[in-house]
């Protein structure tokens, strides 16, 4: 999949990826950190959330900006609604706390440069971003918003967070078509805190 396709469909790609598993019951991880449940996500005004199984490896498509940083040892879970809103959680367990700190810092670097990277690589995309601050949970989590708008009229908003507890790091993405005014920042921060607490 080209980078252009990933950018253009950034907000809805996770929803599309979840469609194939929507009919299956969500399966809990039997080993390692726990993952978010549908009820942990910011409520959607018109739909339930549906969860795919926890799956080993990198998600496909890779999430905007942070995807290339995700190692093959990742595990992920895709969430979708009946509408244009989707979510993704990716968790990585490193061999040491120091390696986990370094990985979390790398993800933050990718998010800090997200809008700039998108526009450098895709001249027909205008991107802006906001930093929504630190969530005080375990070893800390950080929340970002990224809005992309294309010359052909597509407008997507994504929220991202990266958090760590010891050797485990989790990245959460929420996305839908639209702008910042439709982003549930407070609810997403609660989701992020829950995701990090579940790393134990």
Describe the structure.
It is a single chain. The protein is α+β, with helices and mostly antiparallel strands. The protein has a single domain, classed as Protein Transport Mog1p, Chain A, CATH 3.40.1000. Helix content is 25%, strand content 30%. It is built from 5 helices and 8 strands. Strands 1, 2, 3, 4, 5, 6, 7 and 8 form an 8-stranded antiparallel beta sheet that branches. Strand 7 and strand 8 form a beta hairpin. The relative contact order is 0.19. The N terminus is likely disordered.
SSE arrangement:
Blueprint: H1 3-8, H2 13-19, E1 50-51, E2 55-56, E3 75-80, E4 86-93, H3 97-112, H4 114-121, E5 125-135, E6 141-150, E7 155-165, E8 168-177, H5 185-197
Antiparallel strand pairs: 1-3, 2-3, 3-4, 4-8, 5-6, 6-7, 7-8
> Helical region count?
5
Question: How many E strands?
Answer: 8
Order of helices and strands: HHEEEEHHEEEEH
Number of domains: 1
Strand content: 25-35%
Global structural class? alpha+beta
CATH architecture: 3-Layer(aba) Sandwich
Low-confidence stretches: 1-6, 14-30
Give the CATH class.
Answer: Alpha Beta
Helix fraction bin:
25-40%
> What is the terminal-to-terminal distance?
34 Å
Largest sheet: 8 strands, antiparallel
